Amino acid sequence: MTDKLIAKGLKINGIVQGVGFRPFVFQLAKKYNIKGNAANTSEGVLIHAQGLPEDISAFCRDIEIKKPPLAHITEFLSCPEPVVEYSRFSIIKSKAGKAASTLISPDVSICRDCLREMMDPLDPRFGYPFINCTNCGPRYTIIDNIPYDRPNTSMKIFPMCKNCQAEYDNPENRRFHAQPNACPVCGPQVKLCDKHGNEIKTTDPVLKTAQLLKSGNIVALKGLGGFHLAADAQNQDAVSCLRQRKAREEKPLALMSYNLDIIKKYAQIDLEDEILLNSIQCPIVILKKRYDNKTNHLIAQAVSPKNNYFGVMLPYTPLHYLLLSCIPFTALVMTSANISNIPIAIDNNQAFKNLAGIADYFLIHNRDIYLRSDDSIVRNMAGSPRFLRRSRGYVPTPIFLKHKLPQILACGAGMKNTICLTREKNAFISQHIGNMDNLETFDFFKLTIEHLKRILDIKPEIIAHDLHPDYMSTEYALAYQGDVQKIGIQHHHAHIVSCMAENHIQDPVIGLSFDGTGLGTDGHIWGGEILISEYHSFTRAAHFSYLPMPGSSAAIKEPWRMAVSCLYHAFGKKLWDIDLLFLKNIEKNKLKILLDMIDKDINSPQTSSLGRFFDSIAALTGIRTHASFEGQAAMELEMEAENNISHLTMPYDYTWTSEQPRQIMLKPIIQGIVRDIQAGCPVSAISSRFHMTLICLVSDLCGIIGKETGIKQIALSGGVFQNAILFKGLISELNRKGFKVFTHSLVPCSDGGISLGQAVAAWAVLKN
Amino acid sequence: LDHGSGGKLSHKLISEILVPIFDNPILSSMDDGAVFEIPKGKMAFSTDTYVVDPIFFPGGDIGELAVNGTVNDIAMCGASPVYLSAGLIIEEGFSIHDLEKILKTMEKAARKAKVYIVTGDTKVVPKGAADKIFINTSGIGMIYDKADTASSNAKPGDKIIISGTMADHGITILTQREGMKFDTSIKSDTAPLNHVVKNMLTDYPQAVHVLRDPTRGGVGTALNEIAESSKAGIKIYEQRLPVKKEVAGICELLGFDPLYIANEGKFIAVVSPDMADQVLKLIHEDEYGRDACIIGQVTDDHPGRVFMETSIGGTRIVDMLTGEQLPRIC
Ligand SMILES: [Fe+3]
Ligand SMILES: [Mg+2]
Ligand SMILES: [Zn+2]
Ligand SMILES: [Zn+2]
């Protein structure tokens, strides 16, 4: 009999650790009567399989097709091995090694099985907020090193009890080698504290928390990737109070509801949204508000003022489920626990300190979060989910590249920063890091780089960065010590390359790189760029014509400045004679000084940014003169057009200059808008026309550039493409003109996705 | 053009205008250079050239600025300034009247600072080769006993004192130069700081670890230089930063951060924490130190970095800017 046996060594890579892969292999081995062993190593899962030839091949086939839901195989190597004596199939202890090509799973929302157990009064884990199994639970946020084993996680301080250990050791159990396995006897515990950190004695801290929330308190909840600040979303006073304490004026606050049926009462959900909400990543999904009067009062107005949308998620940790099931809430506000722009709190003591003036109570626990990860935010748009923020649940799943890359660290942009590390065909984009003007964020940035380098075992040979010398990410890159090559990548080129990379595009594209601001190669601030782009280089085919930004950064926070700049650009000194409410509302002397600044070039950098142009139109049409968060004015302008979407509208006149690069003239558009305002057109109609103008203009121009260059594919990137009207409109118009249009669906189109483009462009530059 | 080409007119310019104005025994001897005795000890020597436009501005003129600037640079070295030189480059056709006016304010400033201008030079250059008038001043001073005020001396725990409001000079010059109309009374803060420094270094020579005048690049740049050379962190508090209301208003409208705007009559002192209150009290007694306050402290974390606790919470990095203030946000 034994002479028929064959043996094979298998090496499997991808997301294969901490996702129930080895128990699955164990079950398969049992099914096909295979002996040998399986081990987690830092090179991946290594299997020695010995059995009959047909069983071995069935075994290999099933590994690939029937793999566990969280597993993702990127490499499957098999080679014959000599037959040796194995008495059974066993799982052997993990060993650390040099080349860590294995992938770490993201954090996963609680699975059906665990949820059922937690709600079952007879189950030993009934009501236990830290229940998990190999199919669910924390991963990325609790790992400190590889391989993914309990001693390398923040679970190391909780020795398992006999029962948990037995589950952990039993290959047939759902918790076999579930590293965070725990139960009420041996695992982490929650604790409710007042704002001074004193424990509040109660038999049921979760129920007590729910009651406190119901009575209008703000509670800081320690979650998976960091603390949330929670409040009853129905309670206008509580929500306003939260806003005021957090110094967050108008930016929408995220909601969490117990299930889809409840969400449907206040928001519109279609099938794609349901799929996203229910996915194991459990992101915040952008949903349109329901506007019927009866249900409007379900959510306090302060949750998402002057906005047509809510950001909503389902519970994703056991604790969330417990909290939302003990008292009925329509929704809880669940916003990341931080004060304006500094990273979300993760540590108990730090939370008590930083959130002292915000939270009334703290529901904390004693399982440490090693690496913070904010909630991801996704919106379904033009047939695909689009990331507004790619973080918890998705990180550190790599973006799979077409080419093998050397080990590169790309340091990202200045705001919404993420970093990217590459290894072979994987690009690992970090969780959302944030706005790098803060010391706390910059520290988090450095920590994340070190952490990711360690758990991915990457030693960068190349450092890619933005061209802006004052971005902290650039400063970091330039100060990076060691034997590395450093390469600056132009911001808008990086945007387009990031879109090219995630779509595995080969040939040159026409890249529409539309965003807020980024430093151009001519020292001006770009942001409305049509680039002929390859991975390693680009030429500027066209751009929106330059406008001064009087006050530089102030012109970003205060759209009225850009609007004045627009009017001056279009009307010159005749501006003083224009009859416009917008102008009447500006103090004469202030206006005079602003024009002086433009005339004399005082702190007024030139910009071709489309984002800024949106801001100007929002200010001109009276939507807002000051923005309290990034992109607010542009977003509100878009929503105006949304209200008008059924009307057929004519574009304003548009044209561009003939020299290279072509400059898209703003004058006729601005003049047309002013005429409409003076004629008393509703803002919604003007906004609609403005959107229509951009769609026609850009697609016409692409048509011409396409003819000249023979390029038939177009890549869209940059934060402006969060605008659904422009995004969808351009895609269909460009398709109609015969272009193949590539967009982002794996990384954000905003600066959150730029690190990927930097990494791939840096590689291409060096290769060329 | 003949003034300054070495002939009579130049001699006339010097002997008829300069010497009488700067009347002092060393200068009056009219030799090739100044000759004087020095006491034993360490000296400080500094030079700077002033090309400010406009040359007359609220609060002073280029001459006063040139004297105070070098006086202050020497004072910041922990020294008592004694002798100055003055070199003038004058554009052909510049009004003698204005020149006299400038020289007189130089003299007045020197008298106020109690320093002597002991040697000088003038050159008249063709129209367009210079803009109206450029002035170079150099100076020497004697280091106070036990004083060491180098930028590298900041130690964790030390307090950061600023001697008064920020950005007055830079904003005055900018708005004047560009002819911008603000109905305010802002003026340059140009002033000699050597007297207050003398009091500090006489009474507390060892408590004052660093002295810097935050001129070009402002307080933000000066603090960065201190943090870098001391290999220590510096934490400041937004709410404590002294800025005059009018100046803050103009900065806001122009989109400038007062932290990066030039000052000409202010200093930053890094002082040991146990003596900070006494030193501050001493500064308050000086006419140019009335608004002095503690704005932060030296930390052992984040060496080389300056950071600011903002009024909305969070800690903004106050970076050394590489060029213009181009927007970083999007
Ligand atoms: Fe961008
Ligand atoms: Mg100087
Ligand atoms: Zn589970
Ligand atoms: Zn247990």
TrEMBL record, chain A:
Keyword Zinc in annotation: yes
GO biological process: protein maturation
Reactions this protein catalyses: an acyl phosphate + H2O = a carboxylate + phosphate + H(+); C-terminal L-cysteinyl-[HypE protein] + carbamoyl phosphate + ATP + H2O = C-terminal S-carboxamide-L-cysteinyl-[HypE protein] + AMP + phosphate + diphosphate + H(+)
YrdC-like domain ranges (all copies): 203-393
Chain ranges of the Acylphosphatase-like domain: 7-93
Biochemical pathway: Protein modification; [NiFe] hydrogenase maturation
Key words of the record: Hydrolase, Ligase, Metal-binding, Zinc, Zinc-finger
A GO molecular-function annotation: acylphosphatase activity
Entry annotation: catalytic residues: R22, N40
EC code: 6.2.-.-
Keyword DNA-binding: no
Cited NCBIfam families: hypF (TIGR00143)
Family: Belongs to the carbamoyltransferase HypF family.
Name by which UniProt lists this protein: Carbamoyltransferase
Species classification: Bacteria, Pseudomonadati, Thermodesulfobacteriota, Desulfobacteria, Desulfobacterales
